[in-house]
Amino acid sequence: MQHWFQDHPLVSYLLILAFVIYIFNAVFRPGRLPILKEVLVYLMMAVGCYVLLVLQLLILPIIQCMSVAVFMMLLLRLRQLYDKRINASKDSKPS
């Protein structure tokens, strides 16, 4: 898999960028920012992803590690939705 990512650097860059944007929005999002700050944040992420791409191409498993992190974040989100649904159904039942 690592060799495939090395052979396709554009796909690797886009995957890294997508993972970074998802992680930023899910974990570090400070709320709504003014549009110029928002653009600046995403531009800085795009530049930072280039550094991660270089590390990925130097045989470090950046994409694999980020995919595990995103998978764990999705599991957490699913668990939160499940707990919210269970608690809502318990609250609606009369005791």
Automatic annotation (TrEMBL):
It holds the Pfam family YlaH. The chain crosses the membrane at residues 12-28, 35-53. It comes from the Bacteria. Keywords: Membrane, Transmembrane, Transmembrane helix. The keyword Membrane applies. This is YlaH-like family protein. The lineage of its organism: Bacteria, Bacillati, Bacillota, Bacilli, Bacillales.
